[in-house]
Design a protein that fits this description.
CATH architecture of the largest domain: 2-Layer Sandwich
CATH topology of the largest domain: BirA Bifunctional Protein, domain 2
CATH superfamily of the largest domain: Bira Bifunctional Protein, Domain 2
Oligomer: single chain
Bound molecules: 4-amino-1,4-dioxobutan-2-aminium adenosine-5'-monophosphate, magnesium ion
Number of domains: 2
Number of strands: 17
Number of helices: 13
Strand content: 25-35%
Largest sheet: 9 strands, mixed
Structural class: alpha+beta
Shape: elongated
Radius of gyration: 26 Å
Amino acid sequence: MGRIYIEDLDKHIGKEVTIHGWVYNKRSSGKIKFIIVRDGTGLLQCIMVKATLPEEVFETFGKLTQESSLKVTGTVKEEPRAPGGFELEVKDVGIIHIAHDYPITPKEHGVEFLMDRRHLWLRSTRQHAIMRVRHQIIKSIREYFDSNGFVLIDSPILTPNAVEGTTTLFETEYFDLGKAFLTQSGQLYGEAAAMAHGKIYCFGPTFRAEKSKTRRHLTEFWMVEPEVAFNDLNDNMDLAEDFLEYIVSSTLKHKSNELETLERDTTYLEKVKKPLPRITYDEAVGILKDKGIDFEWGGDLGGTDETVISEQFDKPVMVHRYPAQVKAFYMKRDPDNDKLALALDVLAPEGYGEIIGGSQREDDYDTLVERIKEHNLPMEPFEWYLDLRKYGSVPHAGFGLGIERTVSWICGLDHVRETAPFARMIYRNTP
Ligand code: 4AD
Ligand code: MG
């Protein structure tokens, strides 16, 4: 018989199977011993009864330590009180490897201790659940775009220029060509691809040399970025809300067990349905003033401001038309007010802050040249980008969703460091 996984035990009730895994925990009550085995797909309580086992099999129990690897053979029984709903009546145990002094014990450990041992921490129940939710979110994102006519276009990671401002660039020497930078966003390449395919998305790692030590900032994170030719700001908001509804509802549908393990209250997640509230930046500033916050029109919304605004809504809120002075050079200005950019940020509820940033793009050649100059950016690396405004320029728009912030929100975590398998932050690049 092939290898059986714990998640498939319901197909093997009453049968003899062999599970390959690791010792999660063990306990003993007289002549009955319990080994809790994990195999990556779930936990299984394995029962060893002295009277029914050869002496040498029963004695392996004493040698097993936390995280030792083993093979267990036995009969599958339904047991509603056991984790996962099944247990195994053990017939044989084969030790594969004995672990010595596994450092992460069931007692409480500090978060830095755990982050230093991230390669092992990933095995813990909570971390295991988070990675599975992350996987589902990524899968749902791909499903959404793939089934709605978007073409996946991979944008380069080594790039010759900045997208999101020059203060957060990681740079490296690039042979005889001078400096290259790790990409902050695939957007500019996405725009080129949208002119070739109409609707595209890019999805990959992005980098920001963020000096911010907040619970929302990583230096390396994953971003998915759709870009659509002929879309304006309103179309962009329609896409964002439809997309968010899909990824949240399909994650709730497929990962309810994991969210339960994380003790996530899903009340607010269940409310993520179209339409989502849309407010202007001016209205957002009004909310801050009403709440007694001293906020001057024209500045960017900070983390606490975003929290206060999002707390006024029970769904993600779309804030649009920000002051152009705080936004990127490529954003189109509002034809009705030149001080405003046709920008869009989506703020998650429950204080999780900005998860999406996007805009309608400037599509006029001369205006874009002006913007590049105003932002003191070098013209030469943007020549190709300007070409898109020379040859069949059209209105277009898109946005970027940060994966780690989305995972943090959906899982209800207080820091993004647990949402990436191996998080990179200003003060951490190990393990
Ligand atoms: O708002 P941002 O900077 O937008 C862009 O990069 C656009 N070029 C996207 C586009 O229009 N195609 O970043 C988009 C999202 C943020 O809303 C946030 O979720 C995430 O990326 N993000 C970060 N996540 C973790 N750590 C950081 N340092 C992040 N910076 C941005
Ligand atoms: Mg942003």
